[in-house]
Design goal:
The chain is mostly helical. It contains two helices and no strands. It has a domain of 61 residues. The protein is 66% helix and 0% strand. The radius of gyration is 35 Å and the shape is flat.
């Protein structure tokens, strides 16, 4: 009886500790991920700005903007007949 009670208490404590450490681990991973994303965004801002300006100049230089919409229409042919199939010749 006491052994089962001790096992239940120990299991509950280990479960709670596991949840606590997993929450801390997820928080650390989230902070590190945001830091890496922020670093990359900061380091590539000039490149992104240059690419945006180049794309704008290319559209303005050609004087042509293509804007449109595409619709795909699938056609199905259904062959149906109300006639009975031809009978085979008798031998």
């Amino acid at each position: 009886m006491i052994r089962n009670l001790f096992a239940l208490i120990a299991g509950s404590v280990l479960l709670v500790l596991g949840f606590m450490f997993s929450l801390v681990l997820f928080a650390v991973i989230a902070v590190l991920g945001l830091a890496v994303w922020g670093y990359l965004a900061w380091k590539t801002r000039k490149l992104r700005r240059a690419m945006k300006e180049q794309a704008g100049h290319e559209q303005a230089a050609s004087g042509q903007v293509i804007d449109g919409e595409a619709v795909v229409i699938e056609e199905y042919r259904v062959i149906s007949s109300s006639e009975a199939p031809p009978e085979e010749p008798r031998r």
